[in-house]
Amino acid sequence: MKVMIRKSERGFSAYVPKKDLEEPIVRTEREDLWGGVVTLKNGWRLDLPAMPADTRLPVTVEARKLSDEE
């Protein structure tokens, strides 16, 4: 699914256009965000692609939504 990652003074957030949903990222698997799983405030877990740590934001990426079992 397409996800736009943004950064504000409050931290990172993810916007999912198809769902018209924007949620703060509350947990990251990796310190540099990319190439790991992030958790949104609503409980969704997204697997983000590997990208350079200095990737300019905002950026739209292809992320995979994980089920609760993964």
TrEMBL record:
Protein name: Nitrogen fixation protein NifT
Transmembrane spans: none
Species per Swiss-Prot/TrEMBL record: Ciceribacter sichuanensis
NCBIfam families xref list: nifT_nitrog
InterPro entries associated with the record: NifT, NifT/FixU_barrel-like_dom_sf
Pfam families the record matches: NifT
Superkingdom to which the source organism belongs: Bacteria
